[in-house]
Amino acid sequence: MNFRLTETPIKVWTASFQNSDKIGVKIESDLISQNRLKVFARYPSPTGQFLDDAAFYGNENDHSTKIISSNQTQGLIQHKLQSTDYYTQFYFTDGKLREAGKHYFVYEPSSKTKTIELSAEFSAKNPKSSKTLFADAEKESTSGWESFWKSGAAVDFEGSTDPRATELERRVVLSEYLTKVQCGGSNPPQETGLTFNSWYGKPHTEMHWWHGVHYALWGRPEILEKQLDYYFRSFDKAKKLAERQGYKGVRWIKMSDNDGNESPSSVAAFLIWEQPHLIYMTELLYRDKKDKKVLEKYKDLIFATADFMADFATYDKEKNRYNLGKGVIPAQEVFPAKDTYNPTYEVAYWDWALRTAQQWKERLGQPRDKKWDDVISKLAPLPVQDGVYLSTESAKDSFTFPKWMTDHPAVLGALGMVPESPKLDKKIMKNTLDIVWKRWSWENTWGWDFPMTAMNAARLGLPNQALDALFMKIQTNTYLKDGHNYQDGRLRIYLPGNGGTLAAVAMMLEGWDASTGQFPGFPKDGTWKIKAEGFKKMP
Description:
Strand order of the largest sheet: 1-2-3-10-7-6-5
Shape: globular
């Protein structure tokens, strides 16, 4: 970055380390030798608001910040904030770090030079790393990004006459970058990644599918696998949650911190569609190389997940079937928990996940679980009325009342995001897509609803409609110049839209288990010229 201050040029270079929470900075200017350029660090206080931009500097007495150590080439700052303690380790070329005010620190470089370098590392514990400067960050960043772009899958739409091809390629490339930067850590990310807090800084496990699945489909399963460490860390707490509610197995916590501590939420206690995600994601890891080590690593998580799912289903003696609910909030969150049962998407996902868990038993040479089989064989049918799938069995005439045609059109996820199920009739789903397309309140949807709809259309053999879904002209389907999926003034970025786009495009290119032919999700009318490599099939 180049700019001027009092007509004096300043050049700034910034690079990020790839394997630690650390950045490197290089600054070049005559102002340094004139003692007129300094670098400051200021520590904010959280506001407790839904969206916190980490730029609130009031409430100064609610937290404390101090220099722990300092000399001519380093400074260590400790920040105490309620129950949280963290450190910032600075390394720099010749100079000093001093406290200039409450929670305000300044690095004053020596006037003997016109160029300075520094690094800043954030750590929950006192960092013990060796000295690093900008040159180290630049080297690690360069090699890391080169490795990323040379790995995994790639697609080229050059030569296509469909005017949307260039825009799709732009969204794809920028979404690859954004999800790598924002979502490639060891935890399920926030919907707004690392840019600013959303939902009080808590990740949502029901969104993990949209954040993580695309990595495996794009030939980068190692990034997805790194995120799955969260489920090992939170296993005991998820098990206690299930026990507290009277269920077997583990109930994955919808809204938690990175250690699995449950956060209060009026929705979290009733949401269930996050439960099968782990089975889906680990199934993708296994399919990558058919490595039995993956089965051994995750089997306890998978079987405990399936145990909860089977136990959660309630047996209806009168109809000789298992129901999901009452007492659930579906992915389409407009339905009251106390009245809702058998939402179409959740029933289809439950069926697929339990069947897949049984496949894991068989792959490991273990007997099938009798309880799981009983639930699979007697799970409630997908609710149908007038040749159309209902959003939930409890909401008759779902597509007559406007209040039921808003939020996520999750009924379409029962085929698309969820693989084809023996319970599903594709003719009925085609009717459902037609109704949803015409009647849904698309202005009241979210960024991942459009790739979800595209995946549904692709599996129904409607590639033109799949593309139309990806490019529907709705505000929440907006992709800004930097690639971010804009929702509204509250959520200026929304990464599930980016991850969803990558997942949908991968599926449309490489196909799914039941698909045939090359690029099954794209039209065969000659308007699309496609070169692709490295993609993996979706189940």
